[in-house]
Write a structure and sequence with these properties.
The chain contains three helices and eight strands, in the order βααβββββαββ. It is of the alpha+beta class. The chain has a single domain, classed as Trna Endonuclease, Chain: A, domain 1 (3-Layer(aba) Sandwich). The strands form two sheets. A six-stranded mixed sheet has the order 1-8-7-6-5-2, with helices on both faces. α1 packs across α2. It is globular and about 45 Å long.
């Protein structure tokens, strides 16, 4: 099942959420960037600052990783460049828009399905008065 990850879904019995410890650390970095900058910057400004924050917090990450896409098991020539992959297992898609739209959610869900990564965070730095973070899991 794919959807917003608001409860227990595909999590180990001793862990209430899939990758909860890792996600907690990522969220700390996200909120620090938002607390420092606030809304109003372009997405690539938040991306650069988040990379610095991940580094400062020793969160393993890769920015701009090229991900292969598959269709019915066949590798496509088209690919996707992830904003971030953290802990080699969590996809992070950044936005700096007024509000998260259904097509942004569909984008993350499709990337998860196509790449077989199990967890994605959709992050919107453009909203005010708070940071928006939505969690999606396979």
């Amino acid at each position: 099942m794919i959807g917003r990850y608001d409860g227990v879904m595909n999590a180990p019995p001793d862990e209430p959420y899939l990758y909860s410890a890792e996600t907690f650390r990522i969220r700390g970095a996200l909120f620090e960037v938002y607390r420092t900058l606030g809304p109003g910057f372009l997405e690539n400004v938040y991306e650069e600052c988040l990379g610095l924050e991940f580094g400062a917090r020793e969160i393993p990450f890769e920015a701009g990783r090229k991900l292969s896409l598959r269709y019915k098991g066949v590798l496509l020539r088209q690919g996707y460049v992830a904003d971030f992959i953290c802990f080699d297992q969590i996809l992070i898609e950044l936005k700096a828009v007024r509000t998260i739209a259904p097509e942004h959610r569909a984008q993350v869900i499709n990337y998860l399905r196509a790449t077989e990564i199990r967890l994605g965070l959709l992050v919107n730095f453009g909203s005010s008065p708070k940071l928006e973070v939505e969690r999606f899991a396979l």
